[in-house]
Structure formats: C-alpha cells, structure tokens
Amino acid sequence: MKTTKAAKSTPVKPVAKKAAKKAAQKATAASGKATGVAKKATATIKKAAASKKAAPTKTVAKKAAPAKTAASKKVAPAKTVAKKVAPAQPAPKKAIVESHAALVRRARRINRELAEVYPYAHPELDFENPFQLVIATVLSAQTTDLRVNQTTPGLFAKYPTPEDLAAANPEEVEEILRPTGFFRAKTKSVIGLSKALAEDFGGEVPGRLEDLVKLPGVGRKTAFVVLGNAFGRPGITVDTHFGRLVRRWQWTDETDPDKVEAAVGALFPKSEWTMLSHHVIFHGRRICHARKPACGACPIAPLCPAYGEGETDPEKARKLLKYEKGGFPGQRLNPPQSYLDAGGIPAPPLGAG
Length: 353
Fold this sequence. Notes:
Elements: H1 2-9, H2 12-85, H3 100-117, H4 130-139, H5 145-158, H6 162-166, H7 170-177, H8 183-200, H9 209-212, H10 220-230, H11 240-248, H12 257-265, H13 273-286, H14 314-318
C-alpha cells in the first residue's frame, strides 16, 4: 500500500511546479504591462507638463509681437515728417499790390527803358514788301527767324509774286521749305494764301485786320506783324516771348493771346503798340530767357517783380546774354549804367526792402 501511494504522489510535484511557473510568468507579464502603462502614463504626464510650460512661451511671443508693431507705429511718423520736409521749396513770389494807375506807370516806364536798350528794335524777318513779310511770318511758326531768313531768298527768287506761288508745284515748294520744319503744312498754307491774294485781292496784301485773318495760315499775331511793319498800323504781336514776359512782369495773368493783347493794349497808347511788341520780344530773346533769365544783367531789374528767378550775379548773368548774329545798328550789349551801382550790382528789385 505504501508503494502505491508513493507512486501516485510523485507526479503531483511537477504539476505544482508548472502551475507555479505559469503563475509567476503571468505575474511577471502583468507587472510588465503595469510597468509599461506606468511608463506611458509618466511620459504622457511629462509631455503635458512640457506643453503647459511651452504654452506660456508662445503666448509671450504673441504678446511681444504688439511691442514691435508699436515700435513701428512710433517710427512711422518720423518717415512721414521726412517726406513732408524733403520737397520743401522756397515760397512762391507774392504778387505785388498796386493800383491800375501804378501798373500803367510801371509798364510804360519799362517800355521806355527797353527803348533805350533796343533803340532799333524791328521785326527780325527779312522782307522787301508786304507779300514777302506775310509769307515769312507764316513760315516762322515753330522755327527761328534766322532759319526763315536763310530759306526765303530761294523761295522768293523762284516765286516773286502771289500769282507765281499760287501756280507752283507743291512738291518743289516743299523741298525749298523743308529746313523750316512742318514743310508740308506750310507749303499748303503759303500756296493757299497766295491763291487767295491772287483771286480775292488782285495780288495785293490787304491792309485790314478783318481781311488778313481770312487768309490761310494767317491769325491775329501774323496780321498785326504785317499791319504794324508793312502798313504802319499799330498792333500788338503776342508771340511766345511777349506772353511770357508780360506775365512775368505782372502786367496780366491771362494766357489766351487775344486776352493778353487786350489787357496789355489797355496799358499803352495805341501809337506805341508796334514798337512795344518789338521791345518786349527783343528783351525776351536776349536777356529775359524762359528757363534762366539773366537777372543780374537786366536793365529793368528795379521794375521787375520776378527779379531773382534767374542768375543775379552780374558776371554770371552777362554770360547768359544772347544776341543774333551781327546784332543790329545801335544795339547796346550791356545794361544802361543808370541801373548799376558802383560795384556793378543791379539796383534793388521792385518791392525789395
């Protein structure tokens, strides 16, 4: 009986060991899983903590951004101020305040002084008769008188009368007039003008304003040049120089030639209109230039409200003077000494001091 019990009890131990091993393995696995879960939980906590700590940094960065914006806003006005200061220029000259009677006196005195400087002022176009003068004046548009004077001798030698020019071949006339510029339009004008003279006025240039302005290419300016210099009938020639100078002298602020003519004509006796035009145009071509007038060498500096717009140094100003080739009889190259003091400086300009 003992032998049988021993035989039966012997295999019980291995089973118990196996069960114990399995239990141990399960316990180990469970503990491993717990450990893993714990590690994951710990990592998650750490990440959460890290994110919580980092979050304020982002918030701070966002808060810091407005500081830059504020700084830029503070700097912006400085740039704006710089832009306002940069284009600063001298204040424009104020218009002089004078009565109409004072304006008339000043304007007439300017004309008298210019007459002393340019005693032989005249139309600078070469002509021998009214026909040549009206043709030359039409050709002078958009070119110089010198260029016209170089061109018209050949034209008049070939076509001496209105009848000759009216019957001319346009292509031949264009070749002659080419140096004056806009030669096609000018050819059309002078041929049309000549036909009108031949057909309507018996080949003669009319001596009335209302007849002259009906001719092709002839406006009031050309008509007054012809009336004043070919017929001795007073007229004001409002060309580019004349309009520019009378506005600079504040005789008028009109820009339309007809209105300029009326405004300036009211300041002078009609008998002075033609020579007034010559004086002003001569002065505009020689001293009172458009871009850089020679103020320091100007004989009417004391009467000019625009004194100082150009060069005021006498020596530098004299270098700006311009004169046509050959000048003209009696032309005076320097301003009258009555306008210069002992040091060669122009008298104080109008309104100074």
